[in-house]
Amino acid sequence: MPVSIAAMILLSALLHPLWNALLKRDQRPEGAFIGFVAFLMVLSGGHALIAGYDLLQIKRIWHLVLFSWGGQMLYGTALVHTLRHGDLSAYYPIVRSSPLFIVAAGVLFLDQAYTWPLLAGIALVLVGAFAIQSRRGVRLLDNPATLGIAVLAMCGTGIYSIVDARAMQVVEPPVFFFWVELLNLPSYILIFRLVFGRTPGGHGLFQWVKSPWRYMGIGVIGYTSYLMILLAYGAGADVAAVTSVRQASIPFSVLLGGLWLKEGHMGRRLWASVLLSAGIIVIVFAE
Questions:
Q1: pLDDT digits (tens, 9 = 90+) for 108-152
Q2: Is the per-residue pLDDT at 199 higher than 70?
Q3: Which of 46, 202, 223, 232 could form an SS bridge with 237, CB 3.0 to 4.6 Å?
Q4: What's the predicted TM-score (pTM) here?
Q5: Run of H or E residues at 227
Q6: Is 215 in contact with 39 (CB distance < 8 Å)?
Q7: How far apart are CA 87 and CA 280, in angstroms?
Q8: Residue 247 C-alpha from the chain's centroid
């Protein structure tokens, strides 16, 4: 992987936990997320129009838009269930293990071949990611249903990652981004109404309209983060390698939690971060 592409992915990984933390600190995170998705749609559509891209060229790959949307809905719905019914430290590493799905799908269905050094780097990243977030006394098999839902969330991430990488060989990133978010917005509104019922209620999902500038800022951070990933795909970067390097967002989020939210276990998580970082270095130099 070219160092310039790796640097772009690492910057994306740095931004990812930042917008996540800003949404989680909101009094109504479900409504904040709706505002976030709305501004992603506005930003991507505006970017496409300013750059002179034809939004209607998406008709060439409508099937990929639908697959990406389906993967994101599977991921989002399963993640909400996992966070409501399971321990975050036990199941979030499962959710973030999409490189395993991508490698398996590539070998079984897409005739993809991976070098042993690249696979070793991916393995180091995943082991480091698990070690960072694991906690004593938490067992995966205590709740097999939630474990299965977490695996579905991981598969959803893998599906839309593979599809997004293929779409970037046909259309420009803002064009694809706009149409996927156009489908995501009403879908997430419906899902959150079904999941949360009358809490926070319909008005709670749109409180962000009263103070839109804050959510516009969060949207800019999120859009910049994922735009870099799409650009990396467009440059031909391997999707399994990209999703593995993106795991760098985990130690960034741990550092953010320790310094900002005063979370503990920083010593153990530090050495695990070193292991994850070593895996990223192997991936960068394996291709």
A1: 777 777 888 888 887 887 777 667 656 555 555 556 777 778 788
A2: no
A3: 232
A4: 0.80
A5: helix 212-234
A6: yes
A7: 27
A8: 10
